C-alpha cells in the first residue's frame, strides 16, 4: 500500500508540473536541457514534465525608463538632458522572443546597453551642433536617435516606441546670458514699438494742428471779409442818410451844419456810453469845435458838388 501511495504522489506532482499558466501580456520561453524549445502563449499551457522547463516569462507590454545625461556641443557648451524612453518587445514572433530571452544575461544588462546606446547617439548628434541651435532641434534629435538605434534594438528583439526630451538645460552662466539676450530683445522690440507709437501720435497731432490752423485761417479770412463788407455797407448807408438829410435841410432852407453838429454830439455820446472805463481826451474849446465843423462842412460841400456834377 505504501508503494501505491508513493506512486500516486509522484503522479500528482508530475501532473501538477505538466500545466503552466502564462499571464496576459507575457510570453513563456521553454527550454529542454538548457536549449530553446518553444514559446508558450498567454493562458493554460501543457509542457512535458521533468523534460521541458519554463525558462522565463517575457513581458510584451510597453516599458519606460528615465534618462539624465550630459552632452557637449561643437562650441564646447555643456547641455543637460532629461528624457523618457518608451520601448517594448518588437512582436510576438518566435525569433523576437528568442532574442529577448537570450541576448542579455539579465534585465539590468539590457537596460545598461539600451541607456548607453541612446545617450551615445544623442551625444554624437549634439556634438555637431552649436549651443544656440540645440533648443530648436528637439524633434530632429528624437528622429535622429530613432533612426540610429532602431536597427540595433531590432537585433535585440525590441522596438523604440517613443523618446521624449522633457528638459534641455545649460550651465548657469549660459542660461543667464540667454535670459539677458531674450530680455534685451524684448526691450528692443518694446522700444521700437514705443517709438513707432510716439511717431504716429506726433504725426497725427501735427496733422490735427495743421488742419486746425487752416480752419482758423479760413474762418478769419471769411470773418475779415464779412467785417469789410459790413463797414462798406455802413459807410454807404451813412452817406445815403447824410445826403437825404442834407436835401431835406435845403428844402427847409436850414443850415446843413446842424446835421454835422448833431453827428458830433452823437459821436461824443457814443464814446461816453461805450468807453467801458477808458479815458478819451477831446478838445472841448470853441475854436476846436469850429475847426471840426468847418472840416465836416467842407467834406459835405465836396460831396454835394460831386452829386451835382454827376447829375
Mean pLDDT: 79
Order of helices and strands: HEEEEEEEHHHHEHHH
Task: Tell how many strands the DSSP assignment holds.
Answer: 8
| Major sheet attributes | 3 strands, antiparallel
Assign the CATH superfamily of the largest domain.
Band 7 domain
* Rg, nearest Å: 58 Å
The assigned structural class equals: alpha+beta
- The total of helices stands at 8
Strand % is 15-25%
**How would the global form be characterised?**
rod-shaped
Which fold name is given in CATH as the topology of the largest domain?
Tetrahydropterin Synthase, Chain A
Residue share in helices? Answer: 55-70%
* pLDDT < 50 runs, ≥5 residues: none
Count of distinct structural domains: 4
The CATH first-level class of the largest domain comes to Alpha Beta
- CATH architecture classification of the largest domain: 2-Layer Sandwich
Strand arrangement in the largest pleated sheet = 3-2-5
- Terminal CA distance reads 178 Å
Can you put this structure into words, describing what you see?
The protein has 311 residues and is an alpha+beta fold. The protein has 4 domains: 58 residues, no CATH class; 108 residues, 2-Layer Sandwich (Tetrahydropterin Synthase, Chain A), CATH 3.30.479; 67 residues; 57 residues, no CATH class. 62% of the residues lie in helices and 21% in strands. It has 8 helices and 8 strands, in the order αβββββββααααβααα. The chain has a 3-stranded antiparallel beta sheet with strand order 3-2-5, covered by helices on one side. A 3-stranded antiparallel beta sheet has the order 6-7-8. It has a two-stranded antiparallel sheet with strand order 1-4. A hairpin with a 2-residue loop joins strand 2 and strand 3. The protein starts with a helix and ends with a helix.
Amino acid at each position: 500500500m505504501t508503494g501505491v501511495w508513493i506512486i500516486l504522489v509522484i503522479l500528482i506532482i508530475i501532473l501538477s508540473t505538466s500545466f503552466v499558466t502564462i499571464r496576459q501580456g507575457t510570453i513563456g520561453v521553454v527550454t529542454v536541457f538548457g536549449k530553446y524549445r518553444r514559446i508558450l502563449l498567454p493562458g493554460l499551457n501543457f509542457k512535458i514534465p521533468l523534460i521541458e522547463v519554463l525558462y522565463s516569462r517575457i513581458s510584451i507590454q510597453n516599458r519606460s525608463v528615465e534618462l539624465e545625461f550630459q552632452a557637449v556641443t561643437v562650441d564646447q557648451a555643456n547641455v543637460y538632458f532629461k528624457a523618457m524612453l518608451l520601448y517594448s518587445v518588437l512582436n510576438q514572433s518566435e525569433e523576437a522572443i528568442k532574442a529577448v530571452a537570450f541576448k542579455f544575461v539579465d534585465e539590468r544588462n539590457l537596460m545598461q546597453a539600451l541607456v548607453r546606446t541612446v545617450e551615445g547617439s544623442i551625444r554624437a548628434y549634439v556634438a555637431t551642433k552649436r549651443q544656440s541651435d540645440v533648443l530648436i532641434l528637439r524633434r530632429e534629435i528624437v528622429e535622429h536617435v530613432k533612426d540610429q538605434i532602431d536597427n540595433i534594438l531590432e537585433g535585440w528583439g525590441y522596438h523604440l516606441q517613443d523618446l521624449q526630451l522633457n528638459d534641455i538645460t545649460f550651465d548657469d552662466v549660459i542660461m543667464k546670458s540667454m535670459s539677458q539676450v531674450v530680455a534685451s530683445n524684448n526691450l528692443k522690440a518694446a522700444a521700437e514699438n514705443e517709438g513707432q507709437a510716439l511717431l504716429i501720435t506726433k504725426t497725427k497731432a501735427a496733422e490735427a494742428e495743421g488742419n486746425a490752423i487752416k480752419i482758423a485761417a479760413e474762418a478769419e479770412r471769411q470773418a475779415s471779409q464779412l467785417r469789410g463788407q459790413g463797414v462798406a455797407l455802413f459807410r454807404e448807408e451813412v452817406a445815403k442818410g447824410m445826403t437825404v438829410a442834407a436835401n431835406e435841410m435845403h428844402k427847409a432852407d436850414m443850415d446843413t451844419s446842424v446835421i454835422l453838429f448833431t453827428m458830433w454830439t452823437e459821436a461824443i455820446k457814443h464814446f461816453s456810453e461805450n468807453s467801458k472805463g477808458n479815458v478819451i481826451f477831446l478838445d472841448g474849446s470853441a475854436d476846436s469845435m469850429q475847426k471840426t465843423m468847418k472840416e465836416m462842412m467842407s467834406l459835405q460841400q465836396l460831396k454835394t458838388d460831386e452829386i451835382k456834377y454827376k447829375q
